Amino acid sequence: MIKHLNRRGFIKTASLAGGALWLPNTLQAKQEEFMGEREIGLPKYELDTPALCLDLDKLERNLSQVQEKLKNTGVAVRPHVKTHKCPDLAKMQMQAGAIGVCAAKLSEVEVMLENGVDQVLMTGVNVTPNKIKKAIQLRKKHPGFIQAVDNMENAKDLQEAAKAAGITADVVVDLDVIKRSGAIPGEPALKLAQFVDQAPNLNFRGILAYDGGVQHVHGYQTRRQRNLERMTPIIETHELMKRSGLNLEIFSGGGTGTYDMMGDIPGFTDVQAGSYLFMDCQYMDIGGVGNEELFDDFAPSLTILSTVINTNHPDRLITDGGAKAVTLNKPAARVIGEPNFNYNAGSDEYGTVTFTESNGSYKVGDVLEMIVPHCDPVVNLYDRIYGIRNDKVEKVIPVLARGMSQ
Amino acid sequence: MIKHLNRRGFIKTASLAGGALWLPNTLQAKQEEFMGEREIGLPKYELDTPALCLDLDKLERNLSQVQEKLKNTGVAVRPHVKTHKCPDLAKMQMQAGAIGVCAAKLSEVEVMLENGVDQVLMTGVNVTPNKIKKAIQLRKKHPGFIQAVDNMENAKDLQEAAKAAGITADVVVDLDVIKRSGAIPGEPALKLAQFVDQAPNLNFRGILAYDGGVQHVHGYQTRRQRNLERMTPIIETHELMKRSGLNLEIFSGGGTGTYDMMGDIPGFTDVQAGSYLFMDCQYMDIGGVGNEELFDDFAPSLTILSTVINTNHPDRLITDGGAKAVTLNKPAARVIGEPNFNYNAGSDEYGTVTFTESNGSYKVGDVLEMIVPHCDPVVNLYDRIYGIRNDKVEKVIPVLARGMSQ
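ok -> structure tokens follow
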């Protein structure tokens, strides 16, 4: 379903030309190893660890599940690729029915657009001359690129840059929900939207409003009520814009924690869920519609494999997965099959598992599999994700936008 | 002083062959941009942010300072490259007088050895068949590679693999100080060392004992006393081994927090300090020999540049540097020139600065420069470090072992 054309094609080309990636004396075998080609077909437990694994059956179910749940609600899915940073996965999301994707940063947008993902809405703003210029150049090349603004000066800069490039750039206005990004709802946002709408080289497409604070509120009904309350100024601003005759074809927001609640918001068009395809301990704990303790609409598909390297002390295992492989996010990674294990990733290079009860007896060389604490920053540590089916590596997914925080 | 041969050479070669790194329609200009060649000479404040910057004057002072301080102590420097992950910086450390470097993981070792850093001591263990095989192959190719063992089974596996490869592998025994890695001090460690010493295809070179728990103890004298107390079982084990006639040419350990205290330990040979070349908020806070509040033997050379993207709320700035650019490590990043700023990197994509007093007035597009909270995991987020002198980019240092946690 997915082809690893870009980096693989590159590696092969470089090899023919005698180039090297990080090894000066390059061998074809080394390059295949770098891209994981030698790992295709390998049992997952034989991968060098720490390794980031993706259960493809679970992934595919999650991708169809989000579409299924929203089928008759009038709310579409525009998944946020900041979570996975993989053009290959963005293409799977599009094939599953997404209307486009969101990206957080310009460098991430660029990786998507240049690797065959052609509908990208950038939820962050570009405020420096260099980024504005790049963004406009990207829009010139890719008509499916929409960018956000949240202040008037920036809108003026974008208008000027678009004019200089001889294009009309598509723009949405980001609205402030949690004092982070966004224009102040009400009159200030309306004025900004009207400016964009009237700017000759900008095309106002609608609004964004992401509530990063409500996604992890525990309990479905509490979360649903909180979501509606906090979106009230946004709903009012949407009304205000509507009355003023603005184009509101896009009203985007929401996340994995609120994806099935956004139909409560009048005029809302599409949900920016990111984590739903992987899930993580943070989201599992928020509770779902039929289960207050476990949010199980989606299955945890993303895991870290880590090897036990020391068993010298009782009730303690040391692994090779520390903060550089797991992050410091809380709640801690959960070892599958061992509910009483406490996984501490506080050391950069080592994980420390402490327990009073265990279901197995562990020795040096054994491999633990953990559900990730928080998927986005974990993925951002790895250059590749191993796509696993029937416990074997089916494909290697390059994380092409890893580290693209610019 | 440093040449960016490998990745640059590669990029150019790939370009000649029409290959692409992450862009399928590759232009020479794009590739130069990827490796930062276009940024050479640029004022640092014009870099796309978040950007990781290294003050080259401060770096060079730190590199000579550690050698200067230890000159007449009988303790050598074997810096830990897990901190910087850059062969270029390892070579600078060697030129400054280091006797070799340490590395944490096998993939990191490989990047160093294959990029011209020929004396590498791996402080972690390799316990799986694939890694043992790789380690022995690396030793076959690179005589300067020394690896650690901390259990008998593993030593047997190494002996077998070395025999199969027809080589003698250099080995040190890692000793347990903080219940993490290492063999139990005393008789168990002695037996392991004797086994290694007598194994026909292993060459026992000495011991390691890293105390990851004492490095950040506040106050120089308290830290010094604690270091000595905690090293006591190691000192006794060293004595035991010495009496049994073992080769103890290596007795390595210590870190940036104890680098000038390791001369207290009889027989100690070299310090594995990593952070000293960059420094960070965690280490600045431990206090130094002449200053209980600030550890200032080394200057903070590593900083993150981040751009203000929203100023809509009073006493609050939003930046483009969140957890994916700064990590969740505490204490928080410190904004240079603004001691009253609180930098919260809890959001993946955004930083939130709150303050009651500020020395400047900030607008959207302004750039903040921060001292990193904890250097190792921050570096592990970036593909390149900008080497800065006189506020301009002098060189771009590829972080070739980034993400190499395997």
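Confidence is low (pLDDT under 50) at residues 1-31 of chain B.
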